[in-house]
Amino acid sequence: MRESEKLEIRKLYEEGVSISELSRRFGHDRKTIRKAIREQEQEQTDVEKRNRSKKVKGYKLEPFKSYIEQRMRIGVLNAERIFREIREQGYTGGITVLREFMHPLRPVVSAKATVRFETAPGEQAQIDLGAFSYFDTQGNRRTVWCFAMVLAYSRMLYLEFIKAADQLHILRALRNALEFFGGVPQTILSDNCSPLVVSNDGRGQVDWQPAYVDFAKYYGFVPKACKPYRSRTKGKIERPIGYIRQSFWPVSFVDLDDLNRQAAVWRDTVANVRIHGTTREQPQVRFQSETLQPLPTNRYILAQTGLRKVLNDCRISWNANLYSVPWQYVGQSVLVREFETGHLQVEYGGQVIAEHLVLPGKHLVSTNPEHVKGIPYGTPGDKRDKVPGFQIGPDVEQRELAVYEEIALGGRVQ
Question: Taking the model in full, what pTM does it have?
């Protein structure tokens, strides 16, 4: 029986035509007519159910659509994160409907090709920094830096927000990461940021910052750098930085400590317990198979170092502040060390010539009166451009001696 015939039978039956009459009109027995009617009724029922299902799904998400759009406008594009947020607000629907709603609202993202590689347990970790902007309480746009480290085998993640992307803060976060993992991988891969790398010729010759080399020797790992302008060769860390932006950021926070408390909760309850898209395992479960080297007994004491020239006013400039040194070293280049304990030392020729407490702000001055004690005042200054001239008499005509004798005797000069 054709579908068009079934539709006509169903229509006539709804209008009151009996099954016997339909059997006579269409030339089918009554059993066939009843089957055609039931099939049409079942198909209509299925359509109504599907429509009701779509209506229910749309209805459940409807109260949350304005919130979702608002979150997407400020850069929250991760569906799983928004799903968690609206579930806390009472949403009882599924994530599929949410993804369908978010899909046309997403910006177009261009993809880059990346060669992925896998490493053995304990073989490698990768680190990177990402700049995250926020508005302070006065509405000024500021930047905080996120240090991220991931173990290449398990994808176990550590993150820490730091106020500056300098050597001292990066190495402090790296030390915290090693202590969080409870061990040290064989190699640590980074990009070519200046606090760690002086230069990289792209052919395997890397000139490392001495402080980072010393740190690596102490903890027993081999530092490696990706090729210049090819940070995507790190692969596994580039994705976690983006994942942090989508799944955790932006957030509201009081200060840096509050921000890192929130980050630690997200790390332990979301990032390291999710099913990873590549390994198809939870990072914290896979982490049990990592074979990391043991940590040293004592913590590495961190210090930021740099060369500075002593100014004429017996001071050196360090991190936008001024610190005094003994006047005898004016014009000399000295080595400055800022320790994480908050102390600052100035060295010359391997000897400590000045010590200060690190100033808490900027454009401040720390002065030790002993540093200018005995400075010689009235010392002759620089005599450049002060060479004396010579005064000479007027030109005098040269004459014979006899002329002067005649003048002396009262004669006249001809």
Answer: 0.59
